[in-house]
Amino acid sequence: MVNALILAGDKGEDGKPKALLEIKGRFMIEYVIDALRDSGVVDNVYVVGDEILKDKIGHVVDGFIKSNGEMLDNIKYSVKSIGDYERPLLVCTSDIPLIKGDAVRDFVLECSKENLDVGYPIIDKSLNDEKYPDVKRTYVKMKEGTFTGGNIVFLNPNVVERATKKAEELIAFRKKPLKMGKVFRIILFTKACPWHSNNSCC
């Protein structure tokens, strides 16, 4: 079992949290919470964001953490606030309402099997286009194919505090794959994510 942290600090042009965008009468973040619960591998669900989120969805999560700076700052602060260094932490964004519980479960099981400190899903463009043809994503073209990344990360909480300048650069360049490649100085994506063979999407 893992803990999950939803990053919900992004705001729209109206200044309101994007997590509270309504889709079919429900807040967008609620679909993400449901998927995490449905996965069967998530114990506690936490949300980091503004106080307005606590008022709206605080009753359906296990903990709320007030936003404390940029993305990396929020992750590091949340790890301390949660205080559980025994179980992995699954970090995701609030703007993935199409995520399904089985995709979360497969991802967590794969990362756990490999005993990873950090895990990040890679999805073949053809799978994404087949299931969600109208969704715009950032892609990287490699000799093995064209890939995009998921909005979810598997983390060993014990390594978060050792985050370096490279981690900050990778977050800043998350929408600019070529710059990400320069940070790593290696080929980022070498194969399609194995847990997407069933066309599930995260």
TrEMBL record:
SUPFAM superfamilies the record matches: Nucleotide-diphospho-sugar transferases
GO molecular function terms listed in the Swiss-Prot or TrEMBL record: nucleotidyltransferase activity
Positions of the MobA-like NTP transferase domain: 4-123
Protein name (database record): MobA-like NTP transferase domain-containing protein
Organism: Caloramator australicus RC3
Origin organism lineage: Bacteria, Bacillati, Bacillota, Clostridia, Eubacteriales
